[in-house]
Amino acid sequence: MFCRCEVAFGGEPNTRVCPVCLGLPGALPVPNKKAIEFVLRTALALNCKIAMRSVFHRKNYFYPDLPKGFQVSQYGETNPLGYHGFLDVPNAEGGIKRIGIRRIHLEEDTGKLMHLPSGGSGVDYNRAGVPLMEVVTDFPPDINTPDEAREYMVQLRQILLYLGVCDGKMEEGSMRCEPNISIRLEGAEELGTKTELKNLNSFRSVQLGIQFETRRQIAVLESGGKVAQETRGWNDATETSFAMRLKESENDYRYFEDPDLIPMEFTEEYIESLRATLPELPLAKYRRYMADYGMTTKEAGVLTGDKHWAGFFEQGVALGADPKLFSNWMNSELAKYLNETGQVIHADLADDHHALSKITPNHLLGLIVLIQDGTISGKTAKDIFREMLVSGDQASGILAKSNLTQISDDEQIKAWCKEVIQNNPDPVAKYKSGVINVIGFLVGQVMKQSQGRANAQLVQELMKAELENA
Amino acid sequence: MAISFDEVQHVARLARLELSNSELLIFQSELNALLGHFSDLNEIDVTGILPKPHAVSMHNVWADDIAEVGLTREYALRNAPRSRAGLFVVPTIIEE
Ligand SMILES: [Zn+2]
């Protein structure tokens, strides 16, 4: 944030450090402009007011995760880059739940401490000084249940990914959630003493952690005890929380403006230029898909859940695809295939374990066109689809090469029907005696003969006619 | 704006300074003398003037987002009182 060390996950400890992030005497911090822009764009996306003048503070405490003896952060009600905003979280019923955002501030991340078997703690400062944006929800809280906390996190992550300001990888700690949890008697106004939970590294542990902590606090109170105001760690393996350290009261941090850092001042013009860079956000997209394409909350939710997935869909529609058919193919066959092979549809999503798929919206559209004009059956389409994903060829090309065109030739189908009737006297006799549904078997035989290429509806019709004559 | 004995003790604890009672009393009187000088400033009318951390009137001093190589690990650890496996070693903090 205030030095130029590379930001990355993992790697050998203390290999991305410099005099600034190690807090060596005489080193002077300079803020990263991009990080400030990212926070401002997030603040705008979360409907926040922007602090047109904003400063950094020192939060003083002694803990070896920061070598300086303080963390550079932003203090105050209206000093953080963004404040007094909200995030609308859609629910399955098509409604929304509004979660108030108290502030969004920019600070520096801390180093990592690990227990050493030989005694003492080891410190890795690679992460120290990495830009950290903290989004703080309102108090009194709008989030009332573990489920709401999870949904809020899901929606927030989507927005961050749409904005491109965070990779959202909770398992790597690039997005973290530190819920403050308190309980109250049903109908009571006052909330009890809160505890803060750390080390939650998935949506699931956010939900489980809050559930556990709620039950723990109830048990403490019901056994006549008092909930201590403390920070607790979450243990994913045992699914329990443990006390980490008592929270010092806010005053003890002795916040003051960092004399090494120059104040920030923004013009309306600059803020508006950032606002202009905001993409259409997931909730707006979600609503538009339902309104414009008649999608259900579930369909629209799946399509807008990832910006690249939504982008793929929108490219297909722009090329002239039928939105419903296109999204059905995406959310069923394409999703299934990508899931099976671990492939992804956008270069930004590709990494060492996820190869970029050869399919483009144009490929899928080409296939759908062939189904719509009756050239191929649904079953053949699935075969071509698989082939297309492997070879990267267009559907029409695969079709031309493989002789998979749907057969709608009356004479050919009639010939096959006659043949099947001749070879299957028993089922034919059954049909004649009134066991009508045996026709399914006979139609199946014709489909087999045609290697699945016959137009099934036509086979059904012609088989009926042939059976009358037989 | 006088500072009490308890406040001096509290601030000393926050700064991890171990001071005897007689030392605390010395610091209390010295700090109060210092604060006395500042109280003169309180008589100046500052209505309409924003607080600022600097005497310089600059703003938006930023750096571009370009990564640079910092210190080698060997160099970074050279002055550490203890180190092990590439880590700085400190007394155990986390108690589970
Ligand atoms: Zn650095």
Write a compact overview of the structure shown.
The complex is a heterodimer of chains A (470) and B (96). With 470 residues, chain A is an alpha+beta fold. Helix content of chain A is 41%, strand content 15%.
Q: Can you give a write-up of this model?
A:
The complex is a heterodimer of chains A (470) and B (96). Chain A is of the alpha+beta class. Chain A has four domains: 1-141, no CATH class; 177-258, no CATH class; 282-402, no CATH class; 410-469, Arc Repressor Mutant, subunit A (Orthogonal Bundle). Helices cover 41% and strands 15% of the residues of chain A. In chain A, the strands form five sheets. In chain A, strands 1-5-6-9 form a four-stranded antiparallel β-sheet. Chain A has a four-stranded mixed β-sheet with strand order 10-11-12-13, with helices on one face. The termini of chain A are far apart. Chain B has a two-stranded antiparallel sheet. Chain B has a domain at 5-41: Orthogonal Bundle (Histone, subunit A), CATH 1.10.20. Chain B starts with a helix and ends in a 6-residue tail after the last strand. The longest helix of chain B is centred in the first third of the chain and has 21 residues, at 21-41. Chain B is built from three helices and two strands, in the order αααββ. Chains A and B meet through helix 1, strand 7, strand 8, strand 13 and strand 15 of A and helix 3 and strand 2 of B. Strand 8 (121-124) of chain A pairs antiparallel with strand 2 of chain B. The complex binds zinc ion. Residues 3, 5, 17-18, 20-21, 129 of chain A line the site of zinc ion (ZN).
